[in-house]
Structure formats: C-alpha cells, structure tokens
Amino acid sequence: MKLAGFLCGVLVSAIATNARAAAPIAFAADFVQTRSLPGFNTLLVSHGVLRFDPVHGFRWEITAPYHYVFEINGQAASEQLPDGTIRKLDPNQTPWLAAVEHIFVGALSGDASELQRYFQMNVQTLTHGRRVTLTPKPGPLADAIVHIEVLESAPGRPEQLDIIETSGGHMQIRFTPLSQSTVAP
Fold it and tell me: Which pLDDT tens digit goes with each residue over 12-43?
C-alpha cells in the first residue's frame, strides 16, 4: 500500500507541475485501480477517491473492496489501515515518504526541478490531450519502477495512469474527475 500511496503522490505532483504554475492546483476524482502481479492470473481491482488541494494536501482513499486512507499535508502523513488502525508516518524516517514530500514541495511551488530530481520527464502532445512519461533516475525508485505514464485530457487533468514495475507488475488507474465543489478533503 505504501508504494501505491507514493505513486499517487507522484501523479498529483505531475499534475501540479505540468499545470499552470500561477494558479493553485486542486483536483478530485473517483478512481478504479487495476493491478496485475507476476504469477497471479486474477486482477486486483479497487475503487476509491483521490483529493488534492494546496491547503488540505493529498488524500488517497480506497473505498472498495476494503477501506484504506493515505494522507499527506506538509510534514504530517498518516495511513488508516483496513482494520481501522491509524499510523502516523514520519517523512524523516521513511525514505519513500521523504521523496513524496520533496516532490510535493517542488510541484506546489511550480518547480519542475524537484520532479526532475527523481524522474526524466517526456511530454508528448496528442490529438486530444497529452502523455507525460516519467522514467525514474538511477536509485531506489528505478529498482521498483520501470516508468509511469500519465494520459491527460488537458494539462493537469489526468484520465489514466499506468505504472510498470520492475517485478513485472502493472498498475492502471483510471480517473473520473469530480466537480470542483468536492475537491477539499
């Protein structure tokens, strides 16, 4: 679940970095996440809601087939596990969370250099929207992820996220944006 939370943080960062830097970025969407794992024939499918705004931070909530919440705002991060247990996470003691924090700070300030600190970025304009490909630079992320591809209907408006893992696993997340009145967590 931690990797999924990190990757969702990367998605939001990519959205914020690639959207208009002058305007505060807020985004909310329902999602369907489909995951395939090497050696398993059955796809794992979950549903939930993603919410992000600069004031409240990032919230990734899986609503079915179980309940899980990952939240990060500034230096505070926590996750609510399916059994209801809430764990506080310390970015200074958790390397993957520290990376998310660095990416958020860069994205929220409009500084693409923070995202580029961890990834090589390639933006391709499509007939309708664009494709942003993030390839991890050598290091711990490259040990887990081959690349992340975000399809957007417009800059800052993702429709689909594909994560190809070095293990052979694949995660696809499809988004249905919610109205702006539902953005705040």
Answer: 555 544 444 444 467 788 999 999 999 999 99
The whole-angstrom separation of Cα 108 and Cα 106 is: 6
Nearest CA to 108 out of 178, 7, 9 is that of 9
Question: pLDDT digits over 135-158, tens only?
Answer: 989 987 888 889 988 888 876 678
23 burial class (0-12, 13-18, 19+ CB within 10 angstroms)?
exposed
Rounded Cα–Cα distance for residues 119 and 137 (Å): 5
Query: Comparing C-alpha atoms, which of 140, 100, 99, 137 is closest to residue 116?
Result: 137
For residue 161, give the nearest of 15, 3, 2 by alpha carbon. Answer: 15
**The two structure tokens encoding residue 100:** 């998310």
Q: Up-side HSE of residue 100: CA atoms within 13 Å toward CB?
A: 32
Structural domains of the chain in order of their starting residue, each with its CATH number:
2-182 (2.50.20.10)
